[in-house]
Automatic annotation (TrEMBL), chain A:
WD repeats lie at residues 148-189. Signal peptide: none annotated. GO terms for cellular component: THO complex; transcription export complex. This is THO complex 6. One of its GO terms (biological process) is mRNA export from nucleus. Gene3D superfamilies: YVTN repeat-like/Quinoprotein amine dehydrogenase. It comes from Hippocampus comes.
Automatic annotation (TrEMBL), chain B:
GO terms for molecular function: mRNA binding. Residues 259-273 have a biased composition (Acidic residues). Keywords: Nucleus. GO terms for biological process: mRNA export from nucleus. Residues 248-258 have a biased composition (Basic and acidic residues). Pfam families: FmiP_Thoc5 (PF09766). This is THO complex 5. The lineage of its organism: Eukaryota, Metazoa, Chordata, Craniata, Vertebrata. One of its GO terms (cellular component) is THO complex part of transcription export complex. It is found in: Nucleus. Belongs to the THOC5 family.
Amino acid sequence: MGPVELLHMSVFSQSFSPCGRFLAAGNNYGEIAIFSLCAALSPDTSEAGRKPVLTFSAHDGPVFCLESFGGHLLSAGDGSVSAWNWAELIKKNVKAVWTRRPEYKASMEIPEINAMVINPRDNSVVFGGGDNNVHILDLEHGVFKSVFRGHTDYVHCLSVREREGEVLSGSEDGAVRIWDTRTSQCVHCVEVHKYQKCARPQFGKWISCLTTDSDWMLCGGGPSLSLWHLRSLTPTSVFALSGCQRRATFYQDMILAVGQGPTVSHCLLGGQVKAQIPCTPNNINSLELNTNSAEHQVLTVAGSSQFVDVFTNVSYRAFSLCF
Amino acid sequence: MSSEALKKRKAKVLRNEAGPTEVKRGRGDGDQQCAEVEQKRLQSCNHFMTLKKLNRLAHMRLKRGRDQTHEAKQKVDVLHLQLQNLLYEVLHLQKEISKCLEFKSKHEEIDLVSEEEFYKDAPQEISRPQLTKNDPHQLTLARLDWELEQRKRLAETYKESQASKEKIQKSIEIKKEHLRSLQPGLNAIMQASLPVQEYLAVPVEQTQKHTEIAQHLPPPLYVLFVQANAYGQACDKKLTVSISGDVDEAKAMSKPPEDSQDDDSDSDAEEEQEKTKRRRSTAGGQLDDKRREMLKRHPLSLSFDLTCKDGSVLSLYFYYLINLNIMTVKAKISASTDLTTAISAGYLVKSETLLSCLYSNDHGTETPNPANRYQFDKVGIGSFADYVEELGHPYKWVQNLGGLNFPSDTSEVRGVLVGSSLSASHMENTMKLLRGRVMSRLALHKQFASLEHNIIPVTSECLYLFPAKILSRLTQWTTITQEEYMNLTFTRHVTDAGLAKETDMYFSGVVERGTARLQAAVVLNPRYPEISPLFSLSLNWKGERSGHTDDNLRAMESEVNVFKNELQGPRPGYQLLTNQISRLCVCLDVYLETEEQDDGVEGPREFPREKMCLRTVKGPNRLKPFKYNHPLGLFSHR
């Protein structure tokens, strides 16, 4: 990785290890880097502590999603998903445990996988990607058990509604579809850009950001970031953020949103933007909270830069890890 | 006598006695008394006579005793004398004996041959074994005889060899004379053969002259000369080496070390210094002199002529700074084509910057010899960079070619070569790099000439990299200074990453299509094309965007900066820059054409879709397809 490549690096995904002491980050060159949080957070750390303990090439294309589940690190990007054993990775032993590829229709390009979520209820992984469909992979049997078809453009983001066993998908065509995992049918379809409150025609209609906590749903992208009540499927608050948001998450009683613009926005449920914390990357692709470890409870943010910002306190940036 | 005296005294006494007695008894008894007195007198006379006789006897006895003693004494004396004589003689004889015993005859100093050898070598008459075996005296005599014999023989042989040596010496003298007389004849022949040499292109005379002058070169220049000659003859016919400068001065320079040991010349020098001190009282003038002295160049210098494939010639002039022990170089290109057409390219072939960073980090502005720091401090020279223009650049590769190896600041553990092996190990590589540098600069020069006329020169081998129809046009290409570059807002990340250095060249290019204007700031490293130029973009179309704000512009930057290996073109890769600019135009086309139609705004699209793309957006950050696939003519994502 020469200095020029580092200059043009973008980090798309992050995931914390099950023990909470390591952070895996995937970049646009198809590499995954493992950072040691203990080394980075210790008081007498040096430059070397902020560098990865291991960097390896995982995919041919960019690594768009990373998830940790059951002691494994799942990575997906260029159309296939690979699983890596966390314990082996910590020992710097790089070997994929398994690799799977959903069935795609034959076409000139292999569609990418943009989003991946774990459904712990039935031990499966949900993928959404460039072929406009949502695929479910059963982890026990290692086969793709169902496909949700319905979107007319590629799927940007996914979210799982655990209580009802439903999957939400947001796509480039501007629709948020809610699927029932058992019947594989689309239960609801919400076209966010049709709602006057949220629509921003100057940007477009795509939905790049989706998250739920069973009763509420946050979605945004071309339209403004908005909070929806799922039972009535109506937008309750709209957040006046300038760029297009790519990730949002519920945190305590706030909402953290990241996307275009070098800031992490703190918003209140009512719709006010409480604070905008500046970060290193100019556009942010990924936001992760470390809930697996009590002592390394950090928020990490990464985007179009080779630096991954670490927040020990959500109000300010503490330091940056560097690829 | 004494008896007479006695008698007289007696007589006196008698008289006296007789007197008083006579007086007393006077008259009466006088007769009786006179008879008694007569008796007494007779008695006394008898006594006196016996006394005398006794006295006489005593005397005679004494005398006799004395005589006897005397005789005995005489005898003893004689014997004593004899004893003394004998003892003396004994002593004398003992001394003589010891002298005799100590006597070392000269013959013992002579190293005689050992007995066995003697019996072996000596002829019978001399060795006489029967006699000598028993008698050591005879043996020694015989050995001495043999020694004498041998010495006589050797003396004769010595005389003979002396005579022959004289003869040979004489003959040598004659031959030497003969040879000396040949020399002028040979010189005449050499002179006569010069025209023939030139005709046959065998510059024997020239190389000889060079070798002769080369004797006066300082050691690093000599090493360089030898290695370059060797390399030129062995590998590279297009390299010519020649020595220029004042040979006499060089000869004069090598003499002074002997003179300076004389006290006279020292005092002379001191006197002179004093005189000059009086003339120039300013310390500044003195310091100037000292500085000039320190930076003095050796009168001889080497000049290399490297001819490249297209006929351009790179001339290098190597100088040696005596007191600083470093070598410097000046460069000049004489191109086969006219070099005055491109304005922005003037910097490319300027002699000061032509050879900058031939090897990475070799700026040639500071002296590589750490000892020079102390010397500079003494005369108040702040930095060598001020004198570089006048004296030439002290690049590290120049020191290596001259066999000078200075320890560097960074503790690299390289094999420690010195002298000619160091020079030889670097020679080939350096020559290749020099040629490459000249060719790339000339190629760039030509390209710049056309870029300034807004034509991007793409060679036929590289046409396949781009689609046939490119609508964006290059409308400007200028040089900018480093300061201007750093002041641009969209180049901050390059400067922060340390990729925009003082030795780099900076350019600004503008690509336009319709109302869209894309400005590109380019950093060109002197080691082009090994290190590719770095582009930073800013687009002015419906608002100002740059690689910072817009992910797609960033993707365009990485398309040109990171995925450049395909753009290198045929082997030497000089087409890199022009190909990058072409690609930039293509990417701008794609960017503008795939921009989404904003439904809220009325009117036709400014840029109709003409490029074929599989998908216009892909990925979480919705990138446009910038990658051109050659035979299909399609655009896809990376």
